[in-house]
Design a protein that fits this description.
The complex is a heterodimer of chains A (about 280) and B (about 100). With about 280 residues, chain A is α+β, with helices and mostly antiparallel strands. Chain A folds into two domains: about 160 residues, no CATH class; about 110 residues, no CATH class. Chain A contains seven helices and 16 strands. The longest helix of chain A has 19 residues. Classes of the chains: A alpha+beta (about 280), B alpha+beta (about 100). Chains A and B meet through β14 and β15 of A and β3 and α3 of B.
């Protein structure tokens, strides 16, 4: 099938990325230029972007393949078949980060592959473009493609929620919400990538309740951040950042100022730009 | 007895071994350490807030809490995720 060929082409790109290393993918993910990324594989151009609604979209310029990642961790791949019709693969992602992957691939509404560790992906088995066809319908290869493309687009899925490196997401939320400066977004720390956050804000009440139970958030302004932690009624400590180790040497990664609750229940409220 | 230390959601995850009486009052010692860190004269202020790591906590335990003790705090592992997860029944301090 034509889409298999196209996916195998993308796989070559993935292999190339692996030569550079996963860290490079993570670093590139925090760049705001990743809002629209061109990928050339054997003369076919693929564009990776995040649209107005917060969806990650990867598409071939010739229209033969299109991938959508919803803000809720659902991936749809639409590919053009040889007879000109389209074929659809649906992927439900529970967890996707540098450390963990948990996804189910559906074809015709039937779960065909479940992936719960990186070993399932078997990228090492790939030996070249010709062999890629033989691996398919190894949806495993397809998932490898997805992981690399999602990371390249600056998107990571944590507990079924798509989150973006803050520098990427800020651009999105700025366009979506006039009063984005006072919005509160669920956030998490990913090693090297820095703070990632959901593109969909939560209400203040939900954030306060989340802080009480140890969950973390991001807001643009320092004052907002402090008020939020204070509202949880557990005391407030900060601001802190951990960008330097005990010898004063800069750590690798991206760090933000944040407040903690007074009882240190594990919650963070990050704010502003990286230190 | 082992205690787990976690800095900013996994930036650092350490296991340290300390005398039982220190481990049992771990939360109290953490609070004392933070009071120490937040005093400007102790040199942790950096650009409007404080900046520290887990090594600072271990060093502080040795210098202040275990000053007269023969047994000092011992770092069992630094950022070994598997071992850290295995010890999930030990007290955890979040920094």
């Amino acid at each position: 099938m034509n889409y298999i060929k196209k996916l195998s082409l993308i796989l070559v790109y993935v292999i190339a990325l692996n030569f550079v290393g996963h860290n490079s993918i993570a670093v590139s993910a925090v760049s705001s230029t990743q809002m629209q990324e061109s990928i050339f594989v054997d003369g076919v151009e693929y564009i990776s972007t995040i649209n107005y609604e917060g969806y990650t979209v990867v598409y071939a310029v010739d229209g033969s393949l299109r991938l959508y990642l919803s803000p809720y961790g659902e991936v749809t791949v639409i590919a053009e078949t040889e007879n000109g019709s389209t074929d659809e693969v649906f992927i439900e992602i529970e967890e996707l980060s540098h450390e963990e992957v948990e996804a189910t691939v559906y074809y015709d509404s039937i779960a065909v592959v479940e992936i719960d560790c990186f070993e399932d992906i078997g990228l090492g088995e790939y030996t070249g473009q010709a062999a890629a066809g033989a691996l398919l319908p190894a949806t495993v290869s397809l998932s490898t493609v997805l992981i690399a493309l999602l990371l390249a687009a600056g998107a990571v899925v944590i507990a079924g929620l798509t989150v973006y490196a803050v520098s990427v997401a800020i651009d999105i939320v700025r366009r979506r919400f006039n009063d984005w400066q006072t919005r509160v977004f669920p956030a998490s720390q990913v090693p090297l990538l820095g703070i990632v956050m959901a593109v969909t804000p939560v209400t203040r009440e939900r954030a306060i309740s989340g802080i009480r139970s140890g969950r973390s958030f991001y807001t643009n302004r320092r004052a907002e951040s402090r008020v939020l932690v204070n509202s949880a009624g557990l005391g407030v400590r900060g601001p802190e950042n951990h960008s330097r180790n005990s010898f004063g040497i800069r750590r690798v990664g991206v760090f933000y100022w944040h407040y903690h609750t007074g009882n240190r229940n594990g919650a963070h409220v990050w704010y502003g730009s990286p230190v | 007895m082992i205690i787990r230390l976690e800095l900013e959601m996994g930036v650092e995850r350490w296991l340290i071994e300390v005398p039982d009486e220190v481990a049992l009052s771990a939360k109290k010692h953490q609070k004392k350490f933070l009071n120490f860190v937040y005093k400007a004269k102790n040199g942790f202020y950096n650009g409007g807030g404080v900046c520290f790591g887990l090594a600072d906590f271990v060093k502080w335990l040795d210098e202040y809490i275990l000053k007269k003790s023969v047994t000092k705090a011992k770092v069992v592992s630094t950022n070994d995720q598997k071992l850290f997860d295995e010890k999930n029944d030990c007290p955890t301090l979040y920094f």
